[in-house]
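Each record in this resource describes a single protein on a pair of labelled lines. With that in mind, the following record should read easily:

===
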Amino acid sequence: MAFYTKVIMDEIFGQENFRNWITRKKCNPKNYTHKAFGNISDFILFYTKSSNYVWHRPMEAWTTERAHKEYPYIEPETGRRYKKVPIHAPGLRNGETGKPWRGMVPPPGKHWQYLPATLDEMDARGEIYWSPNGNPRRKVYLDASGGVPVQDIWLEFRDARNQNIHVTGYPTRKIPI
């Protein structure tokens, strides 16, 4: 029914105010037959009243294992954990971000993400990693991260029945977020 609901919601809120189609994994398959896949997904349609809305991005806390995997490097001078990310982005630019920086041009079909003056400032602060062959990368630090942003597939939110939470009796009750 989610597809029919989306059409109605588009009429009510406006298609331009649709933000996300969130899929949540249920604990128990419903209406399972041997001639179809088990139904383990619930859907949440996220709309806003207008394009002017407040968004508080939900974040999950970093686990030690995940943080060490995503931020594998440790800065010797500070002990801060970081990862290396490119400082270029797709697309050609004719302005400052398309010009050479420190004698280097961005890779073909790309431009610098930052103005050369900003890249100079980042480098002066020690936020640019220079590979042995002179390839610059930006250091992104774990301690500056607010956590792992929640995406549109939710595998961790469990059904109320399976957590021994009081159930209201409504047959398709959803968990509070």
Notes: The CA atoms of residues 85 and 138 lie 5 Å apart. The mean pLDDT is 88.
